[in-house]
Amino acid sequence: MNMHKISPAFSTRILFLTLIFGAHLAGQAQVTWSGQVASIIYTNCTPCHRPGEIGPMPFTSYQEASAYASMIAFTTQARSMPPWQANPNYSHLLDERVLSTQEIQTISDWVQQGALRGNPAQEPPLPQFPSGSQLGLPDTVISMAQSYVHQGNNQDMYRVFVLPTNLGQAQKIKAIEFRPGNSRIVHHAILATDVTGQGRSRDLADPGYGYTQFFGFGFTPTEDNWYGWAPGAKAHVYPANIGKNLPANADILVQMHYAPSAVTESDSSSINLFYDRDTVVTRTEHILPITPQQLTNGPFIIPAGTVRTFRGRFQIPYEVSLMSIFPHSHLIGTSWKVYAVRPGNDTVPLIDIPQWDFNWQGFYHFPRLIRIPVGSVLHAEATYDNRASNPNNPNSPPATISWGEGTTDEMYLCYFGFVPYEAGDELIAVGTADEDRLRRFTARLFPPYPNPAGDRVTAEFQLNLGGQTQLHLMDATGRRVETLKSGWYQPGLHEVELNLPNVPPGLYFLELESGGRTDRSKLMKR
Ligand code: HEC
């Protein structure tokens, strides 16, 4: 039908409907799965609600989602799903999982109108979810040496695993990507680096793989809170010339929270590390906490039957750029509010968590670096409810709770990730530009074989993105002798046979060129 000309019959029908339903219908168009709802669910829910992920039921089709229609309406209206603890009206954080009021209304209208499917032909396809790395080809993958068996007894498990890196040299890390081995149970992971060996002794002292520890590591590792992960977290590249330190031969400690499960599950998680040889990391992110030592109204004791709010203040000794924040309390914690006051009383809201949930915690990243000048004060307020009416109270009847690492103890910690300020930091955005660069630049040439080679040699290379790719032979001074191969290659691992005719014996280099990046490997010609 030509949409510009409305047929008389059609306009009569519109008039008829308008007369019958009047203003009622005007505000409430028909909402269907195919028309409006599928794209909201696929974007905001299906990343976790699909087979093998942590969401307890899959939402990958109309049938699956409509079976839970009223629960979907309920949880979205209550804003308990998608899980996102920070208040978006207070501050904006990277990768916020927040539905708009309009989207919540659309879901609610859909359910009220009977959760109709609409025209299946209009349904958006289920998106492709990344299965491998979100960032590209890692330089190093550090994996759990064994898989850990998490008992199907409906209990939480908090366990630390010690992963030796065996990297003889210290490294500057541009991106850290935690890859849960079993997404059905891995609920959070906090990483630390350690060269003290204390993690290893604790592992030995505890039967089985790893050691049980409710939060933290049971001692202070070399770099506490090196990285944090929770379901739905996206991997990011540290922006500009910023990165993380990984000392030589360090262990990476992984503090894992496994969610309760009715069936026995096993997990073997791993960590992808990216070095990004194209940027020089000159600044490393530091992490420091506000602790009960900074309380203005300590000591940190919450008597049985009381609700207490603790306020900490930390004066900034030198100018910093804030990158991330990680408030932490245990089970009776109920809220957090953290802000900075710059000299002259300019308040910078950092994070507001009105309903603290131990199950959803980790680092929150600021979308841009936040400049905090000398003389500013960081304020961190946390509330704890130690009454019997708090369903999360681990003691029944309530008992006095104070600082400690156990499930029935409490904590008041707010970690800040920062770098010393440099001019222009407030313009640095965290996100895709750096990631695109890293993705584009992962083209890797492995040592050719045999080496030394006769007239033929095999080269192996891996591309993260497909593209025009060349292999050049260079002499010992780096001059190009000839191009041995040229063509378009798919992303992935390739093995190519190269002829080396007519080149005199000696030392050469093979050079891979793809996507603007080159990688070289030595080659001896016999
Ligand atoms: C980051 C992962 C994640 C995302 C995104 C997510 N969920 Fe969930 N969902 C979970 C987990 C995990 C549970 C189990 C309960 C828990 O741990 O909070 C859950 C539970 C639920 C439940 C069961 C009721 C309940 O509260 O336990 C419903 C219904 C639900 N989600 C709907 C949704 C909808 C609708 C969306 C999108 C608007 C969504 N979820 C997005 C992880 C997620």
Description:
The chain is mainly beta. The protein folds into 4 domains: 115 residues, no CATH class; 143 residues, Sandwich (Jelly Rolls), CATH 2.60.120; 141 residues, Jelly Rolls (Sandwich), CATH 2.60.120; 84 residues, Macroglobulin (MG2) domain (Immunoglobulin-like). 14% of the residues lie in helices and 36% in strands. It contains 7 helices and 30 strands. The strands form 9 sheets. A 5-stranded antiparallel sheet has the order 7-3-10-6-8. A 4-stranded antiparallel sheet has the order 14-23-17-20, with no helix packed on it. A hairpin with a 4-residue loop joins strand 26 and strand 27. Helix 2 crosses helix 5. The longest helix has 19 residues. The radius of gyration is 28 Å and the shape is globular. The N terminus is likely disordered. Bound molecules: heme C. The site of heme C (HEC) has 22 residues, from helix 4.
Q: Uncertain runs with pLDDT below 50, 5 residues or more?
A: 1-26
The named CATH superfamily of the largest domain: Copper type II, ascorbate-dependent monooxygenase, N-terminal domain
Q: Which topology of the largest domain does CATH recognise?
A: Jelly Rolls
User: What would you say the CATH architecture of the largest domain is?
Assistant: Sandwich
* Strands in their spatial order, largest beta sheet: 7-3-10-6-8
Number of strands: 30
CATH class of the largest domain: Mainly Beta
**Unique bound compounds:** heme C
The main pleated sheet reads as: 5 strands, antiparallel
